[in-house]
Amino acid sequence: MGSGASDGDRIEVRGLRVDGVHGVLEEERVHAQPFEVDLDLYLDTEPAASADDLSTTADYAAAADAVVAVVSGPPRRLLESLAAAIAQRVLDDRRVESVTVVIRKLLPPLAHEVASTGVRIHRRRAGGAGPGRGAPESR
């Protein structure tokens, strides 16, 4: 395996919008609301660059499907829990060494006007090296 992931190689998914029923308030777990998710999948992209073959890299469509399955799934109270579940699903792809998940609640129930509220987490595969210097750590 090359050194790509340790050098910061990543596949990005930006602005994936999914409706879900997550939040601390009962109304949030009954009525769907919009969430937006960004992913950074850290992996060695050198094999895919050389072979030009999808089977040698992580499939961002599969990662997006994993996000949709989690966000549209059973209610969770905290964004931290939702983000961790997404990270675990993405890390089911053995080619992904680590992942950053950003999840934003686009219509949070606040008394103040905000564009969104959210959480950013970074998770590494157990025993994996993960991305190199400069990669975000867990929040």
What's this model, at a glance?
The chain is an alpha+beta fold. The chain contains 3 helices and 4 strands. The protein has a single domain, classed as GTP Cyclohydrolase I, domain 2.
Strand order of the largest sheet: 1-2-3-4
The structure class reads alpha+beta
Principal-axis shape:
elongated
Largest sheet: 4 strands, antiparallel
Oligomer kind: single chain
Query: How far apart, in Å, are the first and last alpha carbons?
Result: 29 Å
Q: What top-tier CATH class fits best?
A: Alpha Beta
* Helix residue percentage: 10-25%
Question: pLDDT below 50 for ≥5 consecutive residues: which ranges?
Answer: 130-139
Number of helices: 3
Structure in words:
It contains 3 helices and 4 strands. The relative contact order is 0.22. It is of the alpha+beta class. It starts with 9 loop residues before the first strand and ends in a 15-residue tail after the last strand. It has a single domain, classed as GTP cyclohydrolase I, C-terminal domain/NADPH-dependent 7-cyano-7-deazaguanine reductase, N-terminal domain (GTP Cyclohydrolase I, domain 2, 2-Layer Sandwich), CATH 3.30.1130. Residues 130-139 have low confidence and may be disordered.
